[in-house]
Amino acid sequence: MDTTNNQKNFTIALIGNPNSGKTVVFNNLTGSRQHVGNWPGVTVEKKEGKLFYKKRQINIVDLPGIYSLDAHSEDERVARDYLVFSKPDVVINIIDSSNLERNLYLTTQLLEMGMNVVIALNMYDECNARKIKIDIKKLNDILKVPIVATTATKKIGMKELLSKTYEAAVNSDGSTGCSLDVKYNRELESGLDVMENMVKDYLPNEDGYPARWIALKLIEDELKMVRQLAKNLPEIIINKKKEIVDNIENSCGEDVYSLIAENRYDFIKKIITEIIIRDTKESPTSVSDKIDRVITNRFLGIPIFLIIMYCVFTLTFKLGDPIVGWIETFFGWLSEVISTGLANINAPELLTSLITEGIIGGLGSVLVFLPNILLLFLAISLLEDSGYMARAAYVIDRFMQVLGLHGKAFIPLLIGFGCNVPGVMATRTLENKKDRMTTILINPLMSCSARLPVYILFASAFFKGKQSLIVFSLYILGILLAIMMAFILKRFVFKGENSFFIMELPPYRVPTIKSTLIHMWERSSSFIKKAGTIIVIAVILIWALSNLPVGVEYASKDSLIGKIGTFVAPVFKPAGFGNWEAAVALVFGILAKEVVVGTLGVIYGVDEAGLVGAISQHWNPISAYSFMIMTLIYIPCIAVIGAIKRETNSWGWTLFAVGYSLVLGWVVSVLFYQIANLFVR
User: Fold this and answer.
1) What burial class does residue 664 get, using C-beta atoms within 10 Å of its C-beta: 0-12 exposed, 13-18 middle, 19+ buried?
2) What dotted CATH number matches 190-262?
């Protein structure tokens, strides 16, 4: 054992396929000691956590869920580059043990790199349920790495996994681990041998990576990565690489990349033949397959999806409304107590107004909707963790193909229901650039949770008893408009061949309480952070503008806020909400959509309960729905605009997204208001 490691903190990387249970393993190991950010220079989410084991700090890095290290998508590039250039002490490879063939592909790539790997054969209970036995000892003999059977959702095997990982880290001498030699066909092996010898002769290998793996990366045309490793790439190697690749492709009649993938799968199939023992009496049809016959049915799939989403919104209101009432009461009481307290100490009226009408009124009118948002994210997390959301993407794929997109593009749109920022960022998983651009530009039309307070406020004021239906209709409208814009963009702007959609449907699983609550909190916390930063700043600014110039009546037409609203209001008159209060709310809503409600709360100087009565005097049901349509469609918030700029790397496309959404919002709102009024008359 290497005693020089005794005081060293270890870094452990978690890697695995999507739906392999990697997130549950990460949560089990790190508990609440984790934080989320972005990898330097890219928008891919980065999760890190830490734990203390045997008086040693172990840092855990959760890499993106990927199927391979081939670096076709940004997720794959991030994972591959982290492993190559950061060299974690140990890599825990989480494998779905019920789907070894697909999962072992990534494992072979890790072992070919010479990574210090510990394998977690996760979801082992599903193998037992399906009467599939894995000979772990034989698999260990073949791969020559520690292997632990785990069921992360029940915390089975977690202690052994941690122990094996610690041993692997302590016993590591800092070099790469055991390298696995995958047996390729004759032509590939011959080319690899030549390339490997040239690597040994011409390239420095200070990091200790297997020369065979570097040779394989050269044949796969990963020249940029090899240059970063070797600092230099002689022309003789580049020329020889081209010659070898040409010879292999001419001999086999197939491109090198496909050949390598096929050979890896052949190697994996041989392993599986040796280690898997099946009960031949078992019925080939699993419970998941039986459910999917209904859920993914070509006729029933979309109606079922719509029913499920409607139930989500019904749950949001039925369970959330009573809690909303309690929060309303709390903020009303808080405003009264502070107002009385400030009066007792003869505080200036301006200070009292700032705290009660500005901060408490504005912030309270937004935070009152937190229960609804928490419940919405709870429902979405349950659907994701159960495996249904993958089916939703599959079901929608048939429809998306008509637009020139595919079901995988629907996943960022679904994420956009929570927040458009991660929805825009999630487009990085799309390999086709034209699909990616289209999906980025239509993502802001997905009704994010920030718009929900506006919907709830107006639906409660004008559509009592039908709130779920009204909110559901706005979400559907967003989807329909996104479909329309996708059709236009793909037909006239981003022309090209249709992409094909390949997605592995995970088996249905019972979501764990811990994982679901963590997902819910991660998404809801952004709402609370905005309430504590952007929204507080916005409501104070709005309050100040409502009191200026000095001596003007608070929030009157003569105040600065009133003048801004009066200037903008005529634009919205054809849509039914030409009052200056509505105009100001929309202008400041560009900061964050929640600010729309906060602005109205500050202007009217009331809490959420009083706000319902205040807006009832300035809107009617038709103009209220028109206002909600405008809130849904018009200019994305500043955070989304920033995300679009980062993802497209173009101010032109960013301004296009801002411009088209504003025009589209105005046109749809005006059409609705004018047509609806014809029927009312």
Assistant:
1) middle
2) 1.10.287
